[in-house]
C-alpha cells in the first residue's frame, strides 16, 4: 500500500528516525504545536475568504446603488406622459390664441 509517493516502510523508517531524534517526551508537544499551527492556518484562510466575500458583496451593493441612482436621475429627467401631453396641449392652445389675436388685430386696424 502506498500513501502518495511514500510506501508504508518509508513512513515507518521516518517515524522511527523522528522518535530517536526528538525522544518520546517531545513528540506529544510537537504534535500539539503542529495541530495548533494547522488550526491557525485554517482559521486565517477562512478569515481571508470571509473578507474577500464581504468586499465583493460591498462592491456589488455599491454598483447596485449607483445603477439605481442613475435610473432615478434618468426618470426625473424625462417628463411623464401626462406632463408631455399637457405641454403639447398648452402649446397648441397658445398658438391658436395667438393666431386668433393676430387675426382680430388685423381686422380691427383701419386700412
Provide an overview of this structure.
With 111 residues, the chain is mainly alpha-helical. Helices cover 88% and strands 4% of the residues. It is built from 2 helices and 2 strands; from the N terminus they run ββαα. The protein has helices spanning 8-77, 81-108; strands spanning 2-3, 6-7. Strands 1-2 form a two-stranded antiparallel ribbon.
Short description, anyone?
This protein is mainly alpha-helical and 111 residues long. The chain has helices spanning 8-77, 81-108; strands at residues 2-3, 6-7.
Per-chain topology:
Layout: E1 2-3, E2 6-7, H1 8-77, H2 81-108
Antiparallel strand pairs: 1-2
Strand order within the widest sheet? 1-2
Gap between N and C termini: 123 Å
* Assembly form of the protein: single chain
SSE class: mainly alpha
- Ranges with pLDDT <50 over ≥5 residues? none
Computed CA radius of gyration, to the nearest angstrom: 42 Å
Look at the structure and give the mean pLDDT: 76
- Which geometry do the CA atoms define? rod-shaped
The tally of beta strands, per DSSP, is: 2
Strand content: under 5%
Fraction of residues in H or I helices: over 70%
Amino acid at each position: 500500500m502506498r500513501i502518495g509517493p511514500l510506501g508504508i516502510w518509508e513512513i515507518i523508517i521516518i517515524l522511527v528516525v523522528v522518535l530517536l531524534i526528538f525522544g518520546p517526551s517531545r513528540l506529544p508537544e510537537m504534535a500539539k504545536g503542529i495541530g495548533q499551527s494547522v488550526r491557525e492556518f485554517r482559521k486565517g484562510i477562512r478569515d481571508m475568504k470571509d473578507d474577500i466575500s464581504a468586499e465583493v458583496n460591498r462592491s456589488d451593493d455599491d454598483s447596485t446603488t449607483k445603477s439605481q441612482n442613475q435610473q432615478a436621475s434618468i426618470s426625473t429627467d424625462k417628463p411623464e406622459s401626462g406632463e408631455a401631453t399637457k405641454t403639447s396641449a398648452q402649446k397648441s392652445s397658445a398658438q391658436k390664441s395667438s393666431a386668433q389675436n393676430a387675426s382680430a388685430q388685423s381686422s380691427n386696424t383701419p386700412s
